Amino acid sequence: MRQSVTAPRVSVNEIVEIYWRFLSRNKQYAQHFEQYKKRYLSDQKAAEAEAVVFSLLRAEKQNPDIFEDPGTGGPDFLCHPSSTDSFLVEVTSLDSDSMSKKSALPRTMTGAGGGAFGLITEKLLSSAKNKARQLGGRSLPGVLAITSDYDFAGLLMDRMAAQYLMTSAPQINVPLDGRPEYVTTDFAHAAFCSLGLLDASGNQMITPRRQSISAILLITIHPNESRVVGLLHPEPATAFDPNWFPKVPYLQFTHWPLTSGKVETEWILGDAEHRDAAFEHRLIR
Q1: What residues does 78 pair with on adjacent strands?
Q2: CA 33, CA 19: separation in Å to the nearest integer?
């Protein structure tokens, strides 16, 4: 009789332990290892996020290497999805207390329940603003990985969160003259673009912003897996090829350049329904 073998479930603590060993055993990372130890003591969640993202990239054959310079900083990882392609990854972690405060959700999940909550689009945008310069100036695609292990992060960093970060929240307009209502956006909290000046025809121009960030990955860290959705910049300084990481569903503008009269987005890659991509935590030797 054929027996199925189930891979052992790997915890975040085990991922951190393996990453710790990886850094400690490689002499070229001696300074980075010392900084990582200090970071683990001062901001454990940020240190865990770094280890989880590195492990995920290794498992998905992105061949990450440590890129951050201990003296001058810079993006965390340099990935090599092929012998001719490279991209940079910067990891940032959102703390549970601030996410709870912003969303009005409890600090921890204690059981079944329901109620209203708010999205954290402004907080996600703040991460993009803070990290844009760090990914710039290197002529390589820059990927910002925004992570959280908050109990309700799956609600706050899903496909709807990606949509709002791409275009800002929709605004319903109801004309007083009886015409049908319609939906607009002001791009106030959009990561990749903003409203600009009027063109020669009087149409509102929409201009690109934060072009150093070629793509954003929203990563929810669960005890034994991570779930990921992505956003693609419509006009980055250097383009990121989503096929380097095809399991992830990516949101993009259907047409670019945009006009103020028509803003459409679409999901590409991932599974047939473009659901959050699930990546089980794996030990990488």
Answers
A1: 65, 88
A2: 10
The owner of tokens 């990985």 is 145
Cβ neighbours of residue 222 closer than 8 Å, sequence gap 6 or more:
149, 154
- Strands of 84-170, DSSP E: 87-93, 142-148
Q: What is the dihedral of CA 39, 240, 273, 284, to 10 degrees?
A: -40
Which of these, 148, 166, 170, lies nearest to 157 by C-alpha position? Answer: 148
CA 98 to chain centre: 17
Place of tokens 């332990």: 17
Task: Find where tokens 């992105």 sit.
Answer: 62
Query: Quick one: how many helices (H) and strands (E) in the chain?
Result: 7, 13
Are the CB atoms for 143 and 87 separated by under 8 Å?
yes
Structure confidence by residue, pLDDT tens digits, 117-163: 899 999 999 999 999 999 999 999 999 999 999 999 999 999 999 99
DSSP state of 200: T
Instruction: Spell out where 35-141 has E strands.
Output: 65-66, 77-79, 87-93
Q: Of 198, 170, 197, give the one whose Cα is nearest residue 186.
A: 170
Residues in the chain: 285
Q: Are the CB atoms for 223 and 15 separated by under 8 Å?
A: no
- pTM of the predicted model, to two decimals? 0.92
Asked if residue 67 lies in contact with residue 78, where contact means CB atoms within 8 angstroms, the answer is yes
37 Cβ contact partners less than 8 Å away, ≥ 6 residues apart: none
Neighbours of 31 (CB within 10 A): 13
User: Residue 146 is encoded by which pair of tokens?
Assistant: 């925004």
